[in-house]
Amino acid sequence: DTAVSQTPKYLVTQMGNDKSIKCEQNLGHDTMYWYKQDSKKFLKIMFSYNNKELIINETVPNRFSPKSPDKAHLNLHINSLELGDSAVYFCASSQARGLIQTQYFGPGTRLLVL
Amino acid sequence: DAKTTQPTSMDCAEGRAANLPCNHSTISGNEYVYWYRQIHSQGPQYIIHGLKNNETNEMASLIITEDRKSSTLILPHATLRDTAVYYCIVRGNFNKFYFGSGTKLNVKP
Lengths: 114, 109
Hints:
Chain A is an all-beta fold. Helix content of chain A is 0%, strand content 56%. In chain A, strands 2, 4, 5, 6, 9, 10 and 11 form a seven-stranded mixed beta sheet that branches. Chain B is an all-beta fold.
């Protein structure tokens, strides 16, 4: 009964490859997010989708393309992987209740680009 | 982009209360303060949130000053499992959460 799940948990790949990370939430939330946590441990938002529509797109290279097939899923596809893409990627979801919109995070996907 | 400032690290003895301060002097009237923690490299875990009244739940208490420019998260009886990085967050536009560097809480036996 995991609330926010991500697959895979670990991903090791070569530079130049294309890879996808999947996220699913069973909380019935209407908004989902992708965050990146780099080696210095700073956690930064990348994207946000509300009801399958993109609402936040921070200054992320266009090699990163999020896709939301439905409200419960937000996948992240990365083209032409670079060394600097190595990081932990966290998915989160939330549901607005007035001004309150608590985000719940997944366990993370650890990506290592060699 | 973080709207909050926190001490880099704090120590606390096991069983004692841990008081973690946060400054958010530019907070606007309808912005909530959220607290999360990250244990090792796990996903951030929600702890508590508040607007202007003090709040308490099964994990912690949140004390917000009357001018709302600062707050304190209180873990009443810290355990070794509470060792983590604690983030104080003020929500931005479109529900953006800006995570600063947080406070590394070390609970010692």
